[in-house]
Amino acid sequence: MTIKAIFLDFYGTVVHEDGEIISDICRQIKTNTNKEEVTSSKIGGFWWDEFYNLFRESYGDSFLTQRELERISLRNTLNHYSSTLKENELSEMLFNHWMKPAIFNDSLEFFKENTIPIYILSNIDRSDILKAINLHQLKLKEVITSEDVKSYKPRSEMFTYALKQCNLSRKEVIHVGDSLSSDVTGAKNVGIKSVWVNRSNKKHNGKVQPDFMVTTLADVLKIPTLVKI
Question: Whole-model pTM?
Answer without folding.
Answer: 0.94
